[in-house]
């Protein structure tokens, strides 16, 4: 299933959702302009590298935030920005512009910490907006479980578009990541060579913290 848009209109212009998407795109375009050596140095500076974070928390804490704006490829960027485009505007409206931005960054940082906790000595850079967006999904599930998501569905050679309730779409996202997260732990335990891949525990952590933080942020009224 591939979400296209939701049938959940807003009455505001989601400036920060647009701004976050724009920043991610601009930074990625900078990434693709770099040579492989320059890109490696760029990731060393701004991605969260668990081993370095463990050894130098005071000097590396900013990577909890800078890593949220880095992406490892076009599909990584496009899929993340699509989810942010679909689900971010409703959460921005519900929280208010500035609280939404803080919520987004806070979820992303919490997600990065969850991934770090799983592999504190890993030398593989952790990056991407997925953890922050998972937090947005957690809030969306909490507040708009019955919202209809126009979804592209592939069934072999048959392709169609159907309405899927948010609780199904987002619920499947969480369950898939939970299963894959535990599978990745088992795989890591059975392997002697460190490998990269999807940061499932960042997704899980971001989602859970999003569901926890969203009601807390709503306690404070105003922008």
From TrEMBL:
It comes from the Bacteria. Residues 59-217 form the Peptidase S54 rhomboid domain. The chain crosses the membrane at residues 12-30, 69-88, 100-118, 124-144, 151-179, 199-220. GO terms for molecular function: peptidase activity. InterPro entries: Peptidase_S54_rhomboid_dom, Rhomboid-like_sf. GO terms for biological process: proteolysis. Keywords: Cell inner membrane, Cell membrane, Hydrolase, Membrane, Protease, Transmembrane, Transmembrane helix. It is found in: Membrane. This is Rhomboid family intramembrane serine protease. It comes from Anabaena lutea FACHB-196. The lineage of its organism: Bacteria, Bacillati, Cyanobacteriota, Cyanophyceae, Nostocales.
């Amino acid at each position: 299933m591939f979400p296209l848009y939701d049938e959940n209109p807003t009455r505001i212009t989601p400036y920060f959702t647009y701004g976050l998407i724009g920043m991610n795109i601009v930074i990625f375009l900078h990434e693709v302009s770099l040579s492989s050596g320059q890109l490696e140095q760029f990731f060393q500076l701004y991605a969260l590298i668990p081993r370095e974070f463990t050894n130098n928390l005071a000097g590396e804490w900013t990577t909890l935030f800078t890593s949220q704006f880095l992406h490892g490829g076009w599909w990584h960027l496009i899929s993340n920005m699509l989810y942010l485009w679909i689900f971010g505007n409703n959460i921005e409206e519900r929280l208010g512009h500035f609280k939404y931005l803080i919520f987004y960054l806070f979820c992303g940082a919490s997600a990065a910490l969850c991934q770090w906790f799983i592999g504190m000595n890993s030398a593989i850079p952790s990056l991407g907006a997925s953890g922050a967006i998972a937090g947005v999904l957690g809030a969306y599930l909490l507040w708009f479980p019955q919202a209809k998501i126009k979804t592209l569905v592939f069934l072999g050679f048959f392709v169609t578009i159907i309405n899927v309730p948010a609780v199904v779409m987002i619920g499947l996202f969480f369950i898939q990541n939970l299963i894959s997260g535990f599978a990745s732990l088992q795989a890591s335990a059975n392997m002697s060579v460190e490998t990269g891949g999807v940061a499932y525990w960042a997704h899980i952590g971001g989602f859970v913290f999003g569901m926890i933080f969203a009601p807390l942020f709503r306690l404070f009224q105003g922008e």
